[in-house]
Design goal:
The protein is an alpha+beta fold. Helices cover 64% and strands 8% of the residues. The strands form three sheets. Strands 6, 7, 8, 9 and 10 form a five-stranded antiparallel sheet that branches. The radius of gyration is 30 Å and the shape is elongated.
């Protein structure tokens, strides 16, 4: 089937190119139109109902009219002269709040709007909240509906912000805005320039690396074009499927899909380009279309094997209890399958159409390449394979030592950014508890109204107020039917801090369990409680996902490589690389920089990228080793030839990916910095240590026994003099 696809693509290349052009454009527009309709901005929506904060969210929706997709805001209003608020000031603020609650905020027009883009114009919910004890400011609570990740919702918020500022300024009052939506918009504005510059630099780096390797502008630009077309089709497929099935995606899923597809798409095109150039050098009399057909058929098998392994790695997330993982895994798996289809059809079609012009104006096709560093490396490995294995194991083992005593950090991800929202939050925290803009919320439900009215809520509120770390407790508020009550608890720590999470999941829940009224149920919710439950769910899921993934990937490798020993070698190598990367991250961020630990999401991120892409590289290298071992001659010479031909492709792909992920390390958010550093390091270790050195050295030590119980078949002596000249002789 693989050769049938690649064969059709090289025989009818223009049909394939036209098909992908139409499909890519159509699905890209579909994805852009629907992406913010199928994403869920609240992380709590992904928690199973068995978690306490998820149950609290359900009570909030059913009894208190809380709506999903609402962006909460806290507006600070104070006198411009810094004097304490007078009674007249407070009345003026409340009157202005009432006017704001009747004013329709119109979403401003944008050049990026499509004819089917939703209109987020709305009348916000605005209500007075509280006044600071020193009367330095008064707070308003505001709700704007819409996905908080949607740029058009951001525009609506900006319109509301400017109108609110202008209205209060006319009354001699100043305003500040904080809360989830304000935090997100300010962070996006602060990062806009940085993200644009980093994106341009990374794009330039990828193009420059390709130009240096192939000496051709076409070979540098086509991989990016292919990844853009197929990536748009993949994202549109996932978003469209989510819309049809009613499954909510995490806002980061489309971005993660793009990162994954850029990585594997460029990897696969690089391997095709290197093999295509090798074929054209070896067979100068062969047409470009024939060479493309032969190369695509051979490399397509390895690419399919590598892609299916990545699919298996991500698909294992379907067994997770945390809904964000359970949705993310299949979504990325589907997108990888779309990229695989593009790799087997669009890429070969482009090679068939361009032929030798792919490498214009380079003249490298007209001459035999020199051995270079990859040939010398292959020769060195052939002479000292055991030493190479020991050096690699020692290096990876030293880095793995950092895993001992590793701690997970569930702290804030703001990186100390001084955005306007952060400044406003800091001003509030000087007079009120830091959690006042996003409290921990206790919901108490009863089978009848008499149970709540009989008392006990005051006892519970008093117990919550005595909890160490709680700055203030609001009076209980009954639901319309009297069957539920809400008590807001304001911690002294910010809602995203580790202290607030520990407080919500520990002392607050303990106090609720001990003092809730008899005959009632009580649940603790709010951002702090949600993230505490997410941390618990992640810890639980990692213990399940990792072993399931290892078993599934191992089974797939056995089926694809038709061997028992080779998959074991690859799994051990990738596992050691994963442990070394995690250990190195702990050594840097926990020990060297004296941080609280590594981000709790880091192990999963490394699993998704380092393990999956590391296995990807190893499969592509192993496939070439098997191909070379099918030819007569010493096994070590065969592996050395494989290193000579695959090392440049693996090294280039590794550098491109590492540079892409490494750009995240300049982000001000600590967790994002760790992800950027760790993924870049993990990919470099996978490419330069595992795939280029460790796996080939192990293959040299094991020889053709690597493929036990099968043995590579012999294709007979090689007759092409050019191939004889490029062989590496090992005696």
């Amino acid at each position: 089937m693989i050769r049938a696809l690649t064969g059709f693509s090289t025989r009818s290349p223009w049909k394939v190119i036209a098909f992908w052009a139409v499909l890519g454009v159509a699905l890209t527009f579909l994805g852009q139109a629907l992406v913010f309709r199928v994403t869920q901005s609240s992380a709590g929506d992904f928690l199973p109902t068995s978690y306490d904060s998820a149950a609290a969210l359900k009570v909030a929706e059913e009894k208190f009219g809380a709506k999903p997709g609402v962006g909460p805001l806290t507006v600070l209003v104070a006198r411009t002269d810094g004097a304490p608020l007078q009674d007249a000031d407070e009345r003026r603020i409340d009157d202005e709040a009432a006017e704001l609650a009747r004013h329709r905020v119109v979403m401003p027009p944008s050049e990026d709007d499509l004819f089917f883009s939703p209109d987020h114009s709305q009348v916000p919910r605005v209500s007075p909240a509280m006044t600071a004890p020193d009367r330095s400011f008064r707070l308003l609570s505001v709700e704007l509906t819409g996905n908080s990740q949607d740029p058009r919702v951001h525009d609506t918020y900006r319109a509301f912000r400017e109108h609110t500022r202008a209205e209060f300024a006319q009354a001699g009052l100043r305003t500040g805005f904080t809360g989830g939506l304000a935090d997100g918009v300010d962070a996006a504005d602060a990062e806009k320039t940085r993200s644009t510059v980093i994106g341009i630099v990374m794009l330039g780096t990828i193009v420059l690396l390709h130009v240096l390797v192939f000496r051709s502008l076409l070979a540098a630009l086509l991989p990016l074009l292919v990844v853009s077309i197929v990536g748009g089709a993949a994202t549109g497929t996932v978003v469209g499927a989510a819309a049809l099935t009613g499954i909510g995606l995490d806002p980061a899923t489309p971005q993660l899909i793009n990162v994954v597809l850029v990585g594997i798409g460029i990897d696969y095109f690089l391997f095709l380009l290197f093999r295509f150039r090798e074929q054209l050098r070896r067979r100068p009399d062969q047409s470009g279309r024939a060479a493309a057909a032969e190369v695509a058929g051979r490399v397509g098998t390895a690419v399919t094997s590598a892609a299916l392994t990545i699919v298996a790695a991500f698909a294992t997330l379907a067994v997770a209890s945390f809904g964000q993982f359970r949705v993310l895994g299949p979504a990325v798996a589907v997108s990888v399958l779309v990229m695989l289809l593009g790799s087997l059809t669009l890429m070969p079609a482009l090679l068939a159409v361009t032929g030798r012009k792919m490498f214009w104006p380079s003249r490298s096709l007209a001459r035999e390449p020199r051995g270079g560093g990859s040939a010398r490396l292959g020769d060195l490995l052939a002479r000292r394979p055991l030493a190479a294995v020991l050096v690699c194991v020692a290096l990876l083992g030293a880095l793995t030592a950092g895993v001992a005593g590793i701690r997970m950090d569930y702290g804030s991800d703001d990186g100390g950014a001084r955005t306007p929202a952060a400044v406003t939050a800091s001003e509030i925290s000087r007079a009120l508890p830091a959690g006042v803009s996003d409290p921990v919320t206790v919901f108490v439900t009863a089978p009848d109204a008499n149970t709540l009215a009989a008392g006990g809520l005051g006892t519970l509120a008093g117990a919550l107020g005595r909890v160490d770390g709680v700055g203030r407790v609001a009076p209980a508020v009954l639901s319309g039917d009297g069957l539920a009550a809400r008590i807001d608890v304001f911690p002294n720590a910010g809602p995203h801090s580790r202290e607030a999470r520990d407080l919500a999941s520990g002392p607050v829940r303990d106090a609720v369990a001990a003092h809730r009224p008899a005959g009632t149920e009580a649940h603790v919710g709010g951002t702090s409680a949600v993230f505490a439950d997410i941390a618990a769910a992640v810890d639980k899921d990692l213990k399940v996902v990792f072993p399931v993934a290892a078993v599934l990937i191992g089974l797939i490798l056995v089926l694809l490589l038709r061997s028992l020993l080779a998959p074991l070698v690859l799994l051990l190598a990738v596992g050691l690389g994963f442990a070394a990367t995690l250990g190195a991250s702990a050594l840097v961020f926990q020990h060297a920089l004296d941080g609280p630990g590594v981000a709790f999401t880091l192990p999963l991120i490394l699993f998704l990228f380092v393990v999956a892409l590391g296995t990807d590289y190893n499969i592509l290298v192993s496939d070439r080793i098997r191909e070379e071992m099918e030819r007569p001659g010493p096994a070590r010479a065969a592996v050395a030839r494989a290193v000579r031909h695959t090392a440049p492709a693996v090294a280039t792909a590794g550098l491109v990916l590492a540079a892409s992920f490494g750009s995240l390390a300049v982000n001000p958010a600590p967790a994002t910095q760790q992800i950027g550093f760790a993924t870049a390091l993990g990919i470099l270790l996978s490419a330069f240590v595992l795939s280029i050195v460790l796996v080939p050295a192990c293959a040299m030590l094991l020889g053709r026994a690597l493929w036990w119980p099968a043995r590579p078949r012999s294709e007979g002596p090689r007759k092409d003099p050019a191939e004889l000249r490029e062989g590496v002789l090992v005696r």
